[in-house]
Amino acid sequence: MFNKVTIDQLAAELHKSEQSRVQIEHFSKRFPEMTIEDGYAVSRAWVQLKLAEGRTVRGHKIGLTSRAMQLASQISEPDYGTLLDDMFFEPGHIPDERFIAPRVEVELAFVLKKKLQGGRISIEDVLDATDYVTPAIEIIDSRIEQFDRHTKVMRKVFDTISDNAANAGIILAGRKVKPAEVDLPWCGAILRQNGVVEETGLAAGVQGHPAVGVAWLAQKLAPWGEFLDAGQVVLAGSFTRPVAARKGDVFEADYGLLGRFTFDFV
Fold this sequence. Notes:
Layout: H1 4-20, H2 27-30, H3 36-52, E1 57-63, H4 67-73, E2 79-84, E3 88-89, E4 92-94, E5 103-112, H5 123-129, E6 130-140, H6 157-162, E7 167-172, E8 188-193, E9 196-202, H7 210-221, E10 233-235, E11 243-244, E12 250-254, E13 260-265
Parallel strand pairs: 1-10, 3-7, 4-13
Antiparallel strand pairs: 1-2, 5-6, 5-10, 5-11, 6-7, 8-9, 8-12, 12-13
């Protein structure tokens, strides 16, 4: 695994990239021996830099939940990152200057009322610990360039993991429902960009049931001595492909019975 000097160096590079809005080259290119564990170590070190600046943890996100994305990334499980307080936005105007290359994903968010901790967590445990489920838009971004500037090779999953699983923003809106009120796998959404339907999907696209990823995450955090705490928000994973967003774009997320809301990048 990376030593502490390397971990801290790469975390500092990510931090500088976010502030300057200038992307950096693939870590996996510089360190071909990089592992998934190295990626998570760098991500955690970056979060610590943010916490030292006064940020607070509001929850977690799960990414790469679809089978297609896992095959493309050559992994057999999702990845995850941390949600900080300054990543949360209301529907309406989203400041474009906060991002480098933003993309929009359609998801459901679980807001917990009880702690989820341990190595054996079931879907039923997740539903029992959930206060409510609500529509969520994740704004993903890339501090590490998606394609290498020289070879045009796509970044590896180690890069994405170290980059806080590409998270940058989250919009919570629409209805808040108890898990028993709706058939969660059949919750769907239509995403329009500038009036054009770009994506549609069902939450079943997230490993069959959106709570599966939440249970998986609680178990993955356990070896680190971490857990999903009461009051935290957990993004369960996207059930659409990411849609690139540019300044001036207007989006509408229509979740049917769970509500409809709009936002734009200004």
